[in-house]
Structure formats: structure tokens, C-alpha cells
Amino acid sequence: MSIHVPVLSSQYSTYSSLSGAVSQPGHTFQSTFRRWLPQTAYVPVSKWRNATAASNLHLAPVAFDVIGYSKQGIMMRDLSTRNISAIGQLLAGANDAVMASTGLKQITLRIMWPGYTHVDWSRVIDLIAPTGPITRAQLALLIAQNFARFMEIARTQSPTAAEYVIAPGAIQYEHLVLVGLHNVFEDVWQADIAIDRR
To answer: At a CB cut-off of 8 Å and minimum separation 6, what does 2 contact?
Structure first.
């Protein structure tokens, strides 16, 4: 039995500080069950790095969508249960080498889940595979795997806010929708996530 009251879909905020590059002003999802996960962008701890963050040039975001559904995202469970070939039949632009033009060899993925920012999730993702730059499908799968591991750890932690609790009867991995990936500081990127509790 959960000690937290379940969060109704009508109680989810439609705001995400990361959504600007993926969504248009006033953008809403086609599904009334889908809501943005409000996240704060990562801010470096160091005063010097914090001061330079505002002037840091950000790279273009990467969008993730099911073929034929622009700016709606893709369920992470659909990424986790398929191989790369099957993901390629589902994900728009799956074979695009989306990070090749950045010149980066790796990025740092940060997860800043509301109420769980004390769970320090910072993982390096290699952008170069033995076959060359990774594709949108490979990147989506790596992000989904990171969120699956994060959720396993987070559900054993006490949240500092009850609204986006990760627990049975509340938000779980199968509710996560990957919408985009945004460069928030230097090589640090965060995923733009929606929650869909259908």
C-alpha cells in the first residue's frame, strides 16, 4: 500500500522548462492523458561554471517521435521492448546520425526528476559506435535504458515532493514518454519527458 495519494492525470502540469525547443508555444499533446514532466535545467555547482552557463551556446535539441506523429514523443516501453531494427520501423528518422554534426564524442545525460533531484543521475553516453556515429534509434534506446535504471533506484528513495512520486500506484517506467533531448550546459543534456498513465 502506497503512503502517497496517487496523482491524477488532471493534476499534472503542462509545463516543462526543457520543452521550448521541442514544443511550440501553446503546444499540447494529442492525448489528453499525456502531460509534461516539469524539470529544472541542470545548473553547475561551481560558481564559475554557473556564471558561464547563461552565456554558453546550446546545441540544437533532438526530437523523438513515432512516425506520423510530430511532437508527440515515443513511449519508453516501446523502445525497451524492441531491438534496433524494430525501433527503426516505429521511430521517425530512426537511422539519422543526429549528433554527428555536433563534433561531440560523448555527452553527459542528467536526470532532474522533480522530488528526486537528490538522486544524482549523471551518466556518460558515447556518441560513436564501432560502426560510426550513433543513430536517433540508438540514442533513444540508451536514454530509455538510463531512465529504467534511474526509476529502479528512485523508487527506493524518499521523494522531497509528492506530486511526481515514482512508485507502484503512482508514476512508473511504463508511463514515460521520450519527447526530446536538450543541451543544457556544455556537454550536459537532459531528456524532455512526458507522463502518460493510460
So the answer is: 165, 167, 168, 169, 170
CB of 64 closer than 8 Å to CB of 73: yes
Using one digit for the tens of pLDDT, what is the confidence trace for 106-145?
Answer: 999 999 999 999 999 999 999 999 989 999 999 999 999 9
What is the C-alpha separation between 163 and 141, in angstroms, rounded? 27
Q: Is the pLDDT higher at 43 or at 167? A: 167
18 CB neighbour count, 10 Å cutoff: 25
- Prediction pTM value: 0.83
Cβ-based neighbours of 120, under 8 Å, separated by 6 or more: none
Confirm if 22 and 183 have CB atoms less than 8 A apart: no
* Measured distance between the N- and C-terminal CA atoms of the chain, rounded to whole angstroms: 21
Rounded Cα distance, 170 and 161, in Å:
13
Greater confidence (196 vs 28) lies with 196
Grid cell listed for 78: 516501446
User: Which three three-digit cell numbers place residue 196?
Assistant: 502518460
Residue spans of the domains in the chain: they are 9-196
